[in-house]
Structures are given as C-alpha cells and as structure tokens.
Amino acid sequence: MSAPDLDYRTAFDLAPIGMVLSRHRLVVDCNRRVLEMFRAQRDELVGRSFEVLYPSTDEYERTGARIVASLGADGGYADDRVMKRMDGELFWCHVSGRALDAADPHAAGIWSFEDLSARRALKVDFTAREREIAALLIDGATSKQIGKKLGISPRTVDVYRARLMRKVGANTTPELVHRLLSS
After folding, report:
1. Residues 61, 171: Cα–Cα separation, whole Å
2. What would you report as the CA-atom Rg of the chain, rounded to the nearest whole angstrom?
3. Beta-carbon-side half-sphere exposure of residue 153 (alpha carbons within 13 Å)
4. CATH number of the domain at 128-182, please?
5. 8-115 architecture in CATH?
6. 19 in Cβ contact with 33 (< 8 Å)
7. pLDDT of 3 above 80
8. In angstroms, how far apart are the furthest CA atoms of the chain?
9. Could you tell me the pLDDT band of residue 166, with boundaries at 50, 70 and 90?
10. Where are the domains of the chain?
11. Does 120 have pLDDT greater than 80?
C-alpha cells in the first residue's frame, strides 16, 4: 500500500490538531481532527457559525469581542476556553489562530483547536462567566487584568473567584488554579 500524495489538502485533513478556516465567524472548512474532537459530521460544521461550538450564545459573543480587543499586532490570538461538542458535552480546549486582516479580525482566519480534556477534565458545573474567569486565572492573570479583559471591575472578578474557590473547595488562589488544572 502506497502513502497518499503529500499536498496541502492532505496535510490539512490529516494534521494532528484540529484546524478550521473561517470567514465572518462561519466555518468555511475544517479537518478530520476537528470533526472527531467536536463529534460532528462535516455538514454540521461547514457553513455554520462557530456559535454551535460554544456552551452558550453569550459566551460566543463575549469571546468574539475579546478576540477583537486582544488581537496581537500580527493578528494572532490564543486562549484556553470551555467548548461544546455536538452531543452537548463541555470540555476544555486550547484555541489559537490568526486573523488574515488584523484590522478586520473576523473577516477571515485560520484557527487550531486542541482538546485538553485528557489533562484538564471539566467536572464542576460553572456558569459561563465562571468558566471565563477560571480560564484567565489558569493563565496567571490578576483580578485587574481579568476585569479589563472582560469589561468588569476587579472587585467583581474577586467575587467570582470566591465562588470558584467555594465550588472546588480551595482556600487560596494557587490552590484554586491547581484544582482547576487537576479537576
């Protein structure tokens, strides 16, 4: 049996990470790994809004706004976030990508998705805002940085952090982060 021809399409389809090409937050194309990761059929994603991959419409909208606000000068963006498989299961996912035009971030982009569930299981039922704050705490952001990124006050971040600590049984922020990473 001979190896398949090595071309860009083959490389895209067989890449070890999930890859998506997008226009205006619609999936234009995706590879096999994305379909496996999100437990989707091709027609469930291609031509559809990224919204189907988010736990809620609110998280989809806030993440879109955060991408625009945080886009690097080179058009790059990356974060860890909770995503939703087509069967409804929530999981931690590392998302990174590049807007082809930094001046219009959602016009066209190339995105990669890495399923983190083998390293970071989602066992506690968090609200959408708690998931956002948890992801930023794991990245090492302060209350002030989180507040600025999410458009809320640092005091509000502290209230959410306290809720997260109660939910996972942590007494300190480092313990909270450890439990979020190992839960």
Report:
1. 32
2. 17
3. 3
4. 1.10.10.10
5. 2-Layer Sandwich (3.30)
6. yes
7. no
8. 63
9. confident
10. 8-115, 128-182
11. no
Find, among 83, 11, 90, the residue nearest to 51 by Cα.
83
Flag whether pLDDT at 183 surpasses 60.
Answer: no
How many other CB atoms are found less than 10 A from the CB of residue 171? 8
Give me 81's structure tokens. 């976030």
Inter-residue contact 102 to 71 (CB < 8 Å): yes
Amino acid at 118: A
- How far apart are the C-alpha atoms of 109 and 116, rounded to whole Å? 22
Is residue 92 very low, low, confident or very high in pLDDT (cuts 50, 70, 90)?
Answer: confident
DSSP-derived secondary structure letter, 108: S
pTM: 0.70
Of 132, 126, 116, residue with least CA distance to 168: 126
Using a 10 angstrom Cβ sphere, with 0-12 exposed, 13-18 middle and 19 or more buried, the burial of residue 52 is middle
**Exposure string over 61-77, b if 16+ CB within 10 A, otherwise e:** ebbbebbeeebeeebeb
The strand pairing partners of 115, in sequence order, are: 93
